[in-house]
Write a sequence for this structure.
């Protein structure tokens, strides 16, 4: 159903907004891996993950 | 000129030629109805025009200085893309429904087709575009400059006094004019252009990735080696948040601003909305577009870190993409890198100038020219040449503006700082656009006030300081505020400091813009046209109700299924037979339903499930969409209303039925009462006539026989007297009964002692009982029996019962027993006798009016009126009691009555 998917996408956008903003970033920013801050890896990983989720939400069959 | 620079120029010209060829091919395909761009992939790639020279060169520059600080610009559009299916889809639906040709057109149409709004939006868009175009010019000019410098041929050009940026500007202007204004398309669709920029998106992506791979694996031993080296070079800290030199608020505002810009920049609105061929494409684009952004940014940090490790400074970082291959002897890669940058810049310039020049001609210049009557333009048959001329001038204006900005300001600023100015500028469209499609109350005055104020705040807080940075205005203006007014410092307005200038500007301008839009909209009255347009935009789904829109999209079979589903097989078949008869042939399930068929099907459905529901389900069948919750809610709502209506009808009909039944009952009762009255009158007349007859006959005897002896005369007179008494009693009883029944009885209700009442009655009856030689047994407890009643009336009841009992007991040997009992909540008075008793069938009848008790003794003339028990029952029931007949222990009848105990009596409480 279109509306259901729409609601899920909006929820995904809000989740991504929270994950990719403060205060979440402040928590992540404390972590250091091998002398390098983990922040860039976190940002790209979450970014990729939310895109993957969006793709899954949109492309999976039976939702049209 | 050196070999590399020459090659670059040649490749660039070839590349631009290729773009032309592609665009022409795309246009030709479109004309023949075989569009090559009608798929979500080309659509996504066209959206990637978002990635300009800013992304290509500037991101690396930002990353070198600020680590991950370049990312909000891509995270914002990612979030926006997730809203494509919802928010952006609505804009698309509106734009398609009303033939929108630009963002200015959109705003103007929404706000009552206002020319002021259109013109204002155009001006803001133009002014906002200028820094952005200047960014592209600067990037390309710098790139060429680098190539030339590398060849050592710079001196030749400088010697000729040539300005690379100006040459680039003029070349790009010529290209854009040739490209963007080849012809005028009524729909303002530029399929060829879209194809070209989609191709450019591939080129810039491939080129950038090539450079990224070269830096990561060519210059370093892979990402881990790169990271190690970065750490050794002390660059590790730059990757943390502190390295971005942004605050949490900056990060958020930049994300928001970028998300808005990805829709509101003139070129973005052009590709996202205007050039969109099918709304369905946004679905796939909503994840493919973010994916493109992610991929093109993968190597930004590696390139930036690589450049810094290898000795580059952050000031030069904007050109790392080009400089790194160049410095490391990769001439061809450098050429590729330049080509990618060129593609990024040209794509932006082409679409931006087409969008802005269309606005300038359609929304600013032409409306003014057409209004100037002296020109007589309104009557000219062909304005094409004029419009094209205006557009060409518009393109030139935008590019020259960009050049001047670059020359005056841009040289002193980084690419991204220039870009942000444009972002904050076009963000001023957000309030009027977002509120425009969500809130019907937003009106033209509000939109104009908000946009104008936001635009001015933007100029003051962001554009003005950039002139200061460039040294065109005194530095004290930013440092101390105008005329020393500290509160008015452009980058710390009213003391709001500690923010990045862009977030500072965005917060102030958007707050003022939104605030004024809402406030002025609430305070001023919109015109009728504004109101109408507001409804058309906000309720666009409901407004587009013409079945015409569905033509050719529905299959006949799907409609039939719907009809069967909602109307049932027989009714659906009947509709189908009618349709077949209309056509003279049966309908094939797979054939496309024409508008008429869709409309008739909808009408049939509407009869069954209501208009709104019918529209929703037809839409679902026609467009292949399932019925969403909203539509379902609408259906439910409508059904609810119908149900509610029918429920109310039913209720009304029930009420009517009840009222009818009541009326019928009342009527029956009336008839019954009428009958009773007739009976009563008949009986009363009869009962009255009997004593009267005897009085009259005895009086006549006395009159006719004056010589009767004294004894006989006395006997007759006694009869006359007794009959008169009986008559009086009868009349009294009739009067009592009629008073009780009509409710006019004057009851003297008060607390009383039932024991005392019974004793009083017994005293009164003693005479009759003694006369008839009846033995009376009295069993009344000594304690009080409190009741609430009319004492005299209850005495009358007891007296009546005693007198009745005394009439039917055998003579001699008659026995009557009266007792008072306390039972559950009531006092019961029992009057028993040893008479013949009352057979069970008669036990109710005795209480009827004028029912004379019959028995062995009725040979004697009855002395009762036949109303005693009737009146007794009325009295007892008046005080909440009951009266009945049952068998007596003495062998005869027991007449009993009860009265409720007076719970409030003090005697009981004790």
């Amino acid at each position: 159903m279109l509306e259901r998917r729409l609601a899920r996408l909006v929820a995904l956008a809000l989740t991504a907004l929270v994950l990719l903003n403060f205060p979440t970033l402040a928590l992540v920013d404390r972590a250091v891996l091998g002398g390098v801050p983990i922040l860039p890896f976190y940002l790209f990983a979450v970014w990729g993950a939310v895109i993957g989720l969006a793709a899954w939400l949109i492309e999976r069959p039976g939702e049209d | 000129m050196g070999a590399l620079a020459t090659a670059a120029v040649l490749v660039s010209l070839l590349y631009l030629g290729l773009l032309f060829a592609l665009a022409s091919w795309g246009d030709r395909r479109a004309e023949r109805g075989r569009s090559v761009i009608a798929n979500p992939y080309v659509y996504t790639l066209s959206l990637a025009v978002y990635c300009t020279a800013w992304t290509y060169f500037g991101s690396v520059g930002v990353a070198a200085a600020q680590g991950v600080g370049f990312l909000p610009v891509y995270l914002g559009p990612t979030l926006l893309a997730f809203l494509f299916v919802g928010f952006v889809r609505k804009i698309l639906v509106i734009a398609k429904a009303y033939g929108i040709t630009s963002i200015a057109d959109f705003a103007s149409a929404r706000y009552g087709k206002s020319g002021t709004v259109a013109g204002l939006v155009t001006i803001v868009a133009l002014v906002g575009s200028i820094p952005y175009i200047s960014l592209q010019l600067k990037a390309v000019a710098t790139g060429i400059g680098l190539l030339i410098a590398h060849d050592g041929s710079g001196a030749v050009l400088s010697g000729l006094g040539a300005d690379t940026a100006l040459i680039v500007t003029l070349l790009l202007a010529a290209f854009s004019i040739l490209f963007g204004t080849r012809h005028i398309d009524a729909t303002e669709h530029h399929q060829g252009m879209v194809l070209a920029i989609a191709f450019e998106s591939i080129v810039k992506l491939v080129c950038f990735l090539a450079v990224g791979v070269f830096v990561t694996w060519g210059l370093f031993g892979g990402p881990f080696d790169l990271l190690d080296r970065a750490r050794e070079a002390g660059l590790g800290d730059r990757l943390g948040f502190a390295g971005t030199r942004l605050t949490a608020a900056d990060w958020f505002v930049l994300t928001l601003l970028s998300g808005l810009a990805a829709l509101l920049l003139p070129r973005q609105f052009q590709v996202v909305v205007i050039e969109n061929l099918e709304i369905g494409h946004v679905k796939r684009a909503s994840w493919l577009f973010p994916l493109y952004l992610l991929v093109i940014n993968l190597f930004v940090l590696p390139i930036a870190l690589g450049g810094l490790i290898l000795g580059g400074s952050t000031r030069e970082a904007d050109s790392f993409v080009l400089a790194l291959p160049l410095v490391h002897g990769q001439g061809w890669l450098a050429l590729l890198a330049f080509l990618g940058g060129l593609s990024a810049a040209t794509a932006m310039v082409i679409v931006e100038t087409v969008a802005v020049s269309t606005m300038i001609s359609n929304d600013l210049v032409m409306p003014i020219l057409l209004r100037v009557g002296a020109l007589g333009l309104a009557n000219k048959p062909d304005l094409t040449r004029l419009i094209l001329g205006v557009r060409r001038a518009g393109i030139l204006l935008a590019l020259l503006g960009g050049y001047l900005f670059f020359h005056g300001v841009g040289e002193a600023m980084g690419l991204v700082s220039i870009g942000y100015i444009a972002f904050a500028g076009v963000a001023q469209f957000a309030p009027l656009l977002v509120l425009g499609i969500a809130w019907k109350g937003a009106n033209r005055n509000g939109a104009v006030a908000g946009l104008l104020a936001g635009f001015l705040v933007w100029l003051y807080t962001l554009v003005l300081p950039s002139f200061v940075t460039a040294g065109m205005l005194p530095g004290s203006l930013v440092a101390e505020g105008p005329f020393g007014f500290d509160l008015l410092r452009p980058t710390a307005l009213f003391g709001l400091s500690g923010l990045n200038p862009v977030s500072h500007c965005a917060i102030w301008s958007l707050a003022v813009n939104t605030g004024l839009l809402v406030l002025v909209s609430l305070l001023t009255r919109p015109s009728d046209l504004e109101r109408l347009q507001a409804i058309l935009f906000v309720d666009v789904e409901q407004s587009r109700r013409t079945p015409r829109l569905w033509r050719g999209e529905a299959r006949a079979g799907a409609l039939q299924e719907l009809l069967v589903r909602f109307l049932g097989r027989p009714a659906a078949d009947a509709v189908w037979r009618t349709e077949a008869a209309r056509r003279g042939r049966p309908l094939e399930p797979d054939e496309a339903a024409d508008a008429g068929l869709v409309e008739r099907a909808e009408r049939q459905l509407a009869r069954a499930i209501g208009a709104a529901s019918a529209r929703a389900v037809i839409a679902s069948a026609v467009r292949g969409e399932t019925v969403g919750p909203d539509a379902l809610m609408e259906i439910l709502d409508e059904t609810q209303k119908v149900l509610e209506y029918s429920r109310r009808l039913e209720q009304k009909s029930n009420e009517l039925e009840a009222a009818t039944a009541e009326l019928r009952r009342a009527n029956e009762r009336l008839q019954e009462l009428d009958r009773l009255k007739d009976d009563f009158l008949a009986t009363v007349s009869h009962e009255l006539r009997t004593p009267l007859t005897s009085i009259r006959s005895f009086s006549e005897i006395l009159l006719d026989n004056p010589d009767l002896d004294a004894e006989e005369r006395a006997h007759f007179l006694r009869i006359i007297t007794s009959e008169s008494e009986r008559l009086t009693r009868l009349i009294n009883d009739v009067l009592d009964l009629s008073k009780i029944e009509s409710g006019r009885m004057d009851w003297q209700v008060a607390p009383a002692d039932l024991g005392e009442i019974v004793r009083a009655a017994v005293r009164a009856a003693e005479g009759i009982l003694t006369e008839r030689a009846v033995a009376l047994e009295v069993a009344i407890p000594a304690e009080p029996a409190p009741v609430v009643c009319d004492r005299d009336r209850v005495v009358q009841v007891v007296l009546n019962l005693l007198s009745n009992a005394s009439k039917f007991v055998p003579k001699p040997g008659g026995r009557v027993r009266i007792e008072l009992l306390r039972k559950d909540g009531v006092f019961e008075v029992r009057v028993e006798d040893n008479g013949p008793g009352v057979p069970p069938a008669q036990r109710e009848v005795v209480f009827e009016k004028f029912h004379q008790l019959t028995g062995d003794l009725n040979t004697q003339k009855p002395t009762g009126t036949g109303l005693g028990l009737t009146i007794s029952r009325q009295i007892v029931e008046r005080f909440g009691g009951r009266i009945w007949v049952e068998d007596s222990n003495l062998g005869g009848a027991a007449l009993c009555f009860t009265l409720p105990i007076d719970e409030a009596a003090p005697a009981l409480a004790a």
The first helix of chain B runs from residue 3 to 31.
